[in-house]
Design brief:
By secondary structure, this protein is of the alpha/beta class. About 35% of the residues lie in helices and about 15% in strands. It contains 4 helices and 4 strands. It is globular.
Length: about 130
């Protein structure tokens, strides 16, 4: 998904085969249980399906790290299906890169997946997310 800055980040669902193209150099995995080792550096954000992250402050710090990593490598964000949690995190990442919070869900649906950010609670989470620094 292109960010306003021109940097790219990949969103995906872990239930599906690895997409073609270069492998990421950094991953953020939004899951209820720890992810397997993929062979690249990663962070696990504890986040149950259809819910919100257990630790929003940790999510914020990991998203800042992912945004920074897109300057020099390939980053991906992923959950089980690739829509709800991944879409929510991508919307928050877009906010950190300059998209207004009020437009972030529409941005991710336009550039990533039309059903991204699945629940009302996830949409509220994105609207309240701020681009304020760490």
């Amino acid at each position: 998904m292109p960010l306003p800055s021109g940097r790219l980040v990949r969103g995906r669902g872990l239930r599906y085969p690895m997409p073609s193209g270069p492998l990421p150099t950094f991953g953020v995995y939004l899951l209820g249980e720890p992810p397997p080792d993929f062979g690249w550096e990663s962070r696990w954000v504890r986040w149950a399906d259809f819910r919100l992250p257990d630790d929003p402050a940790y999510l914020r710090s990991v998203l800042f790290e992912a945004l920074d990593r897109t300057r020099r490598g390939r980053a991906e964000l992923a959950c089980g299906g690739g829509c709800g949690r991944t879409g929510t995190a991508l919307a928050c990442l877009a906010i950190l890169d300059g998209v207004p919070a009020s437009d972030a869900v529409d941005y991710v649906r336009a550039y990533y997946h039309p059903r991204a950010v699945e629940t009302a609670a996830q949409r509220r989470f994105v609207r309240k997310f701020t681009s304020a620094t760490r």
